[in-house]
């Protein structure tokens, strides 16, 4: 068997977590299962680690966590950065264990580890990094992935997910270590006693919420009626604290999804982008009849929403719709009350809706587009801060339900998004409009920009090679037409000249104003295809996207 040596090593050494030994014994003799666990090291990318929880080098376990943290510790100790790291985890299985093990490694390397005393959101970790003056941050989370996943996000001293350069340097440091003998380990209780592991006090989280509140436009939200679901994750504490301080008291929390639960039993894919995750809350809306339903994902950096559809039901607002709705709202309110900064800047991504472009033009806002991933939006905030004009930044969003209206953190912030959604709902309610009315008004003004996302999954080692082959073929043989529409522009983001870092993304612009973009996911074994069309009605734009989706599906089978 190809990986027998690796299997035997782990059966002998990976004894600190009995679940790992049980798993390895269960797959003994299954060559495909063993290969999937050992054919590579779990990839450390710009977002850190993310993978299935389990045994082996291609899994999330305490040994992959220790090895990664030793590499991060080496990087910090070789730098001029503060020798302090903030850590947090969400509700996922083994999250607390992974956080503690990372803290032990840091403490053994002379780096002070600051741990939140309970699960907290990713944006609260980004906040803590700068609040505590740390050289880095670690958030143990797999965001919105299914329950079998966990992850390890690394943040720089600026509170932003690490840069490409830092990721490469940390990866090089990790590569010098094995899984069992290299990582240094402190005794946890001794490190707590001598101050090498420190508990983050409640004031840090409270001040984070206050920083979000400082961004309020200031509408009266006291009459708002909400249904809220934290999707069994971290959002309950900070969101309830926020709503209480805002004066929103009529809040019904979805009971089945209120408490932390790493199994996510009511929503196997706990992603507010997906209707299934919001279904339990939507059923409650039929009884409670709120003005707005809000859901945050397990690490509370994404927010989804549903609003009355005018026909007795509730309609989900897409990530792109919420993005342009909040963008327009912020511009409208800040121009109206005289708080719009000089030379304002908004930031979105290359795969987010083109509708942001005419909105920015209307309000005189410079719109910057970045690669996919909110870390690149955070970098733009950092650039403005370095220029001494962080106030120019007014809003950032990505189509995958991430929003941020201030520089208090450098990642998407579900708590900030909840505040904005409540403020916007109250603003339009005072004018006799719902958020759906506001979205439709934008469509009437700018055209029906409709977007769709299709994901194609390729599991295991063979799947990885299949994905690479598909991207190579599309790159080498760019089509002249897609679904009968002529390709008028083609951009390969691995090439120079885009003004952005190189990335494995292909963009096709079509004669009818439509757009199709293809990129492998950085966190899952998927190729994602982003579709965009604009027409004079939703039906016409959706019909164009349906044709493009058929063409994309055919590409994945060739």
Task: Briefly say what this structure is.
This protein is of the alpha/beta class and 558 residues long. It contains 18 helices and 21 strands. Strands 1-5-4-2-3-6 form a six-stranded mixed sheet, sandwiched between helices. A six-stranded antiparallel sheet has the order 16-21-20-19-18-17.
Q: Helix content range of the residues, please?
A: 40-55%
Low-confidence stretches: none
**What fraction strand?**
15-25%
Radius of gyration: 23 Å
- Spatial ordering of strands, largest sheet: 1-5-4-2-3-6
* Main sheet characteristics: 6 strands, mixed
Number of helices: 18
Number of DSSP E strands? 21
Q: Kindly report how far apart the N and C termini lie.
A: 32 Å
Output the structural class: alpha/beta
Q: Shape from CA axes?
A: globular
> Taking all residues together, what is the mean pLDDT?
95
